């Protein structure tokens, strides 16, 4: 089981590393827009929308990596003082809330992505870029988040049932 968790965790780790260059694309597009707008007085109609869509994809796909690294926001007033076994027990109880969110995101995001793909949906703006890549990123992100949720749940279960550490 530990080998499976390591493999799944590795997939999430590399998915986070693979999407990191999207930040460079966003910075390049916004820099281009700033130069065109303020130096050449020739603003673009596509830069803002492109950076928004790329950032949306980045944020969505970074969810699993964020969970893996423990960067999600939690109320740390008491939690940080708990021993690791107590933290695992708290995480096991609260993980069901996250699971319900992830499953809804997977289900409804999948429906939305499929409907968008069927018609090759585009934005309603003047530029009209395709919007289906953003919508496809929703169920993909939910799947990556679900994989990392599973890994964290199993590790928390192992920690919570470890009788060597007292609460």
Give a nutshell description of this structure.
The chain is an all-alpha fold and 167 residues long.
Outline the fold blueprint:
Elements: H1 2-19, H2 21-38, H3 47-61, H4 63-69, H5 76-79, H6 84-119, H7 132-161
Description:
The chain is mainly α. The chain has one domain. It is built from 7 helices and no strands. Helix 1 packs antiparallel against helix 7. The two termini are 25 Å apart.
- Determine Rg (CA atoms, Å): 20 Å
Helix content: over 70%
Q: Write down the overall geometry.
A: elongated
Number of domains: 1
Low-confidence stretches: none
- Please report the total strand number as a whole number: 0
Order of helices and strands: HHHHHHH
Distance between the termini: 25 Å
Oligomer: single chain
Q: Which structural class should the secondary elements be placed in?
A: mainly alpha
Mean pLDDT: 92
| SS summary, helix count | 7
Main beta sheet: strand number and arrangement?
A: none
* Beta-strand proportion: under 5%
């Amino acid at each position: 089981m530990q080998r499976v968790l390591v493999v799944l965790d590795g997939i999430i780790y590399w998915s986070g590393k693979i999407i990191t260059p999207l930040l460079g694309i966003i910075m390049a597009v916004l820099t281009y827009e700033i130069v065109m707008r303020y130096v050449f007085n020739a603003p673009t109609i596509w830069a803002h929308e492109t950076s928004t869509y790329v950032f949306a994809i980045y944020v969505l796909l970074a969810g699993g990596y964020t969970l893996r690294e423990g960067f999600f926001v939690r109320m740390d007033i008491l939690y940080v003082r708990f021993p690791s076994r107590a933290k695992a027990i708290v995480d096991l109880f609260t993980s069901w809330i996250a699971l319900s969110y992830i499953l809804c995101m997977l289900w409804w995001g999948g429906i939305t992505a499929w409907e968008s793909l069927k018609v090759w949906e585009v934005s309603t703006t003047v530029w009209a870029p395709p919007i289906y890549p953003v919508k496809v990123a929703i169920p993909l992100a939910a799947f990556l988040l679900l994989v990392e949720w599973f890994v964290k749940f199993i590790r928390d279960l192992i920690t919570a049932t470890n009788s060597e550490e007292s609460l």
